Amino acid sequence: MSVIPDDAADVQAGPQVPAADQTLRILRHLARRPAPVAASALARDLGIPRSTTYHLLATLEAHGFVVHLPQERRWGLGTSAFELAGGYARQEPLARLGRPVIAALADRVGESAHLAVMSGRDVLYIVEERALRRPALVTDVGVRLPAHLTATGRAMLAALPKVQVRALYPDAAAFTDRTGRGPARPAELREVLRDVRRTGVATEDGEVTAGFRSVAVAVRDHSGWPAAAVAVTWELHSDPDPSDAVADAARLLEERLGYRQRKGRHGTGETRMP
């Protein structure tokens, strides 16, 4: 007769650390919701005592995994949750699948291209492809830049729920400056993101580095959440129009990640990935 080790029996019996189980369920539930949620709704939907829910939310807030919106009395994911998502994205499969897409984009437009993910109020660059005879950019792999100033950051911020953007940028203190240009307060950022939502394309003009311009398009997952953003950057004396190419690259990456189906010859969905 085989003997099951004590630790294996514990795993089979179910979660032995209720607080850890409840914490992870809260984070997963918030991640699946399109907007912040009231604590009472969390307690009800997850079957967790209300007092326990408040204690867990307070701990998560202290570590930056959730944010409290006092005027709405609701809770949403915080910047530390974005850090976890960005950590996964930096590893696999986003960087691996994104690298050939970004290389092909740079070849197509003849300008440098890159792929970035959100990390708190920053964007983190995970793929960089410099075009032939083009100058080096600040957007090298591993570099962080303020999301509100970059085209990639604006593309992703515009795809987030508005309440989430308000939580990330509650006041003027949340805004940093590089070249003296770009939004410096919440109302100005809202205006920028309104244009991005209208056109589907984010831009920046000398707000990251003087003399350079960028366009970007978000890469969205199954739920519409911005998993990353694709961008092209060029010098102002050059005059390309890479918006369509950037949008094509973003859609192709969505296909390769399994976020959207390819269209067959007659417009029907096709699940086979390239």
Structure description:
InterPro entries: ArsR-like_HTH, GAF-like_dom_sf, HTH_MetabolicPath_Reg, Tscrpt_reg_IclR_C, Tscrpt_reg_IclR_N, WH-like_DNA-bd_sf, WH_DNA-bd_sf. It holds the Pfam family HTH_IclR. Keywords: DNA-binding, Transcription, Transcription regulation. This is IclR family transcriptional regulator. With 274 residues, this protein is α+β, with helices and mostly antiparallel strands. The chain folds into 2 domains: 15-77, Arc Repressor Mutant, subunit A; 82-263, GAF domain (Beta-Lactamase), CATH 3.30.450.40. It has 10 helices and 10 strands. The chain has helices at residues 6-13, 18-32, 39-46, 50-62, 79-91, 94-109, 151-159, 162-168, 186-199, 243-256, and strands at residues 66-69, 74-77, 112-119, 122-129, 144-146, 202-205, 212-220, 226-235, 262-263, 269-270. It has a 6-stranded antiparallel sheet. The protein has a two-stranded antiparallel sheet with strand order 1-2. Strands 9-10 form a two-stranded antiparallel sheet. The longest helix has 16 residues, at 94-109. The chain is globular and about 60 Å long. Mean pLDDT is 83; it is low at 1-14 and 263-274.
Indicate the topology.
Layout: H1 6-13, H2 18-32, H3 39-46, H4 50-62, E1 66-69, E2 74-77, H5 79-91, H6 94-109, E3 112-119, E4 122-129, E5 144-146, H7 151-159, H8 162-168, H9 186-199, E6 202-205, E7 212-220, E8 226-235, H10 243-256, E9 262-263, E10 269-270
Helix pairs in contact: 2-4, 3-4, 6-10, 7-9
